[in-house]
Amino acid sequence: MAKITFIEADGKEHQVEAQEGQSVMQAAMDNLVPGIVAECGGFASCATCHGYVDEAWTTKLPAPDAAEEGMISCAYHVQPNSRLTCQLKVTPALDGLVVRLPVSQTSE
Amino acid sequence: MEERIVIVGAGQAGGELAAGLRKHGYKGRVLLLGDEAHPPYQRPPLSKGFLQGKVALSDLYLKPLATYERFEIELKTGTRVEAIHRSSREISLGDGSRLGYDKLVLATGGRARPLNLPGLEGARPENLFALRSISDVEAMRGRFVSGNRLVIIGGGYVGLEVAAVAVQLGLQVTLLEAAPRLLSRVTGPEVSSFIERLHRERGVQFRLACEVRGLELDEARRQVRGVSLAYQGVPELLEADLVLVGIGLTPNTELASAAGLAVDNGIVVDEYACTADPDILAVGDCANQPSAYTGGRIRLESVPNAIEHARVAVATLMGKREPYAAIPWFWSDQYGLKLQMVGLSTGYEQCVTRGSAEGKEFSAFYLKDRRVIAADVIGRPAEFMVAKRLVSSRVEVDATRLGDAAVPLNSFAA
């Protein structure tokens, strides 16, 4: 188990318990976190689970593959720490992870 | 008494709607009724990773059962709704009981369109399949064995995705299509021929512009032995160990029409997902809605539409008015190659391509009045993201420059 905090673009925080092995996106879905839409269900096809990974964690995550990189490169409101949360697997090392959500995913 | 929203249909749209109500702090009861044995799950992987055995059953579930409990979403699987009684605001269930509602949302989805062919009357052969649900895949899995001869009727996405999985598992695959090219309803000839070549290289056989005449059954009428067809004017009998029919979807509108609600290629709703009955809404594959994007009415069969339509319905149920404004988009995956489509190309005047079909990555942009109305992007995810913006912004583009790979696609986006 790892605690993950999602922070919506308007500052609202959601702390959730994520299961090891699931994706960070799925942890948000399981806990009804607004701001993670996940239209394609986790196949790096839609970029609606886009999040900004807090600096302290960027080096603890495997680098994005080509598909994720491509989707991110032309997504909305991209920052150097942008990731697709469906591609991030929860490990014990991610306990305490903070993911901020882009303003483009606040339609809810 | 506590207010009660009843959702008929526990697919992607129904599940999204129930979750959306809780995300927005809805305090009343939320009942989510589904006739399948499973909680809301993802259908797209059924014809891809799940059939291939790479995606587990539990990974199909959109949320674990615990989530429904925790957020007080009363999920009732295996529950069929038989009728809507609008005057008393009740529905009757398969077990004869009745359930009252304050608001009713129809998220009934669709079912695989059945094949009507001579020879098939009254027969339900064990090796004739459709692909719409988990149980459909579980039923056919035992016959997805190397060496088996699979005949697929229908060259749409489901048929092609199943063909891709099947040849990779070593089946002999022949796909029959009535139109002269694949995916003819949804894409241009450039993409059709690319997809055809992709599959031919892997060993899929095609009979395009082919007329399926009937199914040959065994004496007990329990097994299909083959498919009889006419191809280029010549009759042919294709022997088969299993047959998959993928010829589209029939929206489940019977409940609505029996209740006197308007049905016209789907349950007719306005841009807020409302039917003419102020207490009944409809969302997802089963609904026919006005589209700001096409200017007409459309019924879409896709996950992004189910999610967006559920979002619109949640707003309506929460007393807000947020019209549907999303651009349709779709995706497929064949042989690990990502296909991403945005917009509807119907009525396009010109197709501009970028990249090379041989290199397994290219994009096709469909233009009308100098604007990109739709795009099919293969193996180029970054271009897909830009294509989405081009379609939604409706900016004018120069077709010659759009086709010039040296001009960055990003420079066209508004």
TrEMBL record, chain A:
GO terms for molecular function: 2 iron, 2 sulfur cluster binding; electron transfer activity; metal ion binding. It comes from Archangium violaceum Cb vi76. GO terms for biological process: P450-containing electron transport chain. InterPro entries: 2Fe-2S_ferredoxin-like_sf, 2Fe-2S_ferredoxin-type, Adrenodoxin-like, Beta-grasp_dom_sf. The keyword Iron applies. Keywords: 2Fe-2S, Iron, Iron-sulfur, Metal-binding. Its cofactor is [2Fe-2S] cluster. Belongs to the adrenodoxin/putidaredoxin family. GO terms for cellular component: cytosol. It holds the Pfam family Fer2. SUPFAM superfamilies: 2Fe-2S ferredoxin-like. Residues 2-105 form the 2Fe-2S ferredoxin-type domain. PROSITE patterns: 2FE2S_FER_2 (PS51085). This is Reductase.
From TrEMBL, chain B:
InterPro entries: FAD-oxidoreductase/Apoptosis, FAD/NAD-bd_sf, FAD/NAD-binding_dom, FAD/NAD-linked_Rdtase_dimer_sf, Reductase_C. Keywords: FAD, Flavoprotein, Oxidoreductase. Its cofactor is FAD. Residues 4-310 form the FAD/NAD(P)-binding domain. SUPFAM superfamilies: FAD/NAD(P)-binding domain, FAD/NAD-linked reductases, dimerisation (C-terminal) domain. Residues 329-412 form the Reductase C-terminal domain. It holds the Pfam family Reductase_C. It comes from the Bacteria. GO terms for molecular function: oxidoreductase activity, acting on NAD(P)H. GO terms for cellular component: cytoplasm. This is Pyridine nucleotide-disulfide oxidoreductase. It comes from Archangium violaceum Cb vi76.
